[in-house]
Amino acid sequence: MAASDTETAQQQIDEIEALSSIYGEDWCVVDEDEKIYCIKINDCLDQPKWTLCLQVILPPGYPAAEPPIYQLNAPWLRGQAYTELANSLEEIYIQNLGESILYLWVEKIREVLIEKAQSSGPEPDIKKTSEEVDEDDGDDFVLDCQPIHEDPVKMLNYITSGSQEDEELPPIHHGNPITDRRSTFQAHLAPVVTPRQVKRVLEKLYENKKIASATHNIYAYRIYCEDKQTFLQDCEDDGETAAGGRLLHLMQILNVHNVLVVVSRWYGGILLGPDRFKHINNCARNVLVEYNYVPSVEESSKQAGKSKKTRKDNKKRTEH
Q1: Mean pLDDT computed over every residue of the chain
Q2: CA distance 145 to 4
Q3: Cβ contact 150:253 at 8 Å
Q4: Looking at residue 125, what is its pLDDT?
Q5: Phi-psi region of 162 (alpha: psi -120 to 50; beta: other; left: phi over 0)
Q6: How far is Cα 237 from Cα 243, in angstroms, rounded to an integer?
Q7: How far apart are CA 67 and CA 62, in angstroms?
Q8: 262 and 284 in contact (C-beta within 8 Å)?
Q9: Cβ within 8 Å of residue 89, ≥6 positions away
Q10: How many angstroms separate the Cα of 264 from the Cα of each of 48, 88, 147, 204, 227?
Q11: For the CA atoms of 72, 69, 281, 134, what is the dihedral angle to 10 degrees?
Q12: Percent of the chain clearing pLDDT 90 (strictly above)
């Protein structure tokens, strides 16, 4: 490695250590190997109204020769507001070529949020939108799930009102992540038998700063009601259009009972198109197989072989 490369790498290490120290729990490492980080920024109020997640990828040439790759994630940030903030960050980079600029970016964003909080303008629109929109997304997988644009935990309150003291927090399992073009997907699974347990699991997951900072946390659950012999089921896109419906559709096809699956996606700055739905469903299916909610491909093949052999033997007996 050339001396300049060594120096650049050390500058990155020093900057990351400093930012981690300054921002504490608001700073999050998404992927150390890919050098993907994010920080949650707010307007400094006791109960923040304006918040934003800055996600950055540090290329090998940063800060000496390349700018950070960044993504601004906030449900209210789009259109002109996004363009203006992005222009401000890029102007800071140009004014400080060759220097570490992440701290300057964070504080510029915080300044904008404070100005918004102090103005008499409207409250932030919390409706989330996906970074990716495909022409063929449509409503093909709406099923029983309608997009929920509120806080998904709050949306369960109408079902789960009342005491939760008798509701035990189920065990939560985490699947292996899938990374494609710097986007990372990871599934989380919990056995659930009541909507209150769904709410408790979601709250527990969102206590994890890495999960809470994900661009999308898509989920679906199915609870079998034996007395009515029906399913209580629902899903949430969390801004990734139609993803919740697709996930629920997968769970219906697999006929899984009494389980909640959450898939977190950390957007890496490169559009994946329809591949993102493939990764979401693959993550979900893998964790369902791992925890024995559905048989593996090998087990399914063996079972199919046994069934075929049984039918053949029965046919022979009938012929004799």
Answers
A1: 79
A2: 53
A3: no
A4: 57
A5: left
A6: 5
A7: 6
A8: no
A9: 70, 105, 108, 109
A10: 24, 29, 17, 14, 33
A11: 70
A12: 27
What token pair was written down for 230? Answer: 């029906």
Place of tokens 């065990």: 171
Residue 180 · residue 279 · CB < 8 Å: yes
Among the listed residues 310, 257, 248, 312, the one whose alpha carbon sits nearest the alpha carbon of residue 280: 248
Q: How far apart are the first and last CA of the chain?
A: 78
| Cα maximum dimension of the chain | 90
Do 272 and 183 contact (CB within 8 A), yes or no?
yes
The Cα–Cα gap between 70 and 36 comes to 9
d(CA 222, CA 255): 9
Tokens of 161: 């009102």
Task: Look at strands 36-42 and 183-191 and give their pairing.
Answer: unpaired
Quote the pTM value.
0.55
SS3 state of residue 225:
strand
Helical H runs in the chain?
3-23, 80-95, 102-118, 152-155, 157-160, 195-206, 209-212, 243-254, 275-290, 297-319
- Looking at per-residue pLDDT, the higher value among 288 and 1 belongs to 288
Eight-class DSSP state of 215: S
What is the mean pLDDT of the segment spanning 223-228? 84
User: Residue range 165-182: average pLDDT?
Assistant: 86
Q: How confident is the model at residue 295 (pLDDT cuts 50, 70, 90)?
A: low
Per the CB < 8 A criterion, the answer to whether 60 and 66 are in contact is yes
* Mean pLDDT, residues 11-23: 86
pLDDT beyond 50 at 146: no
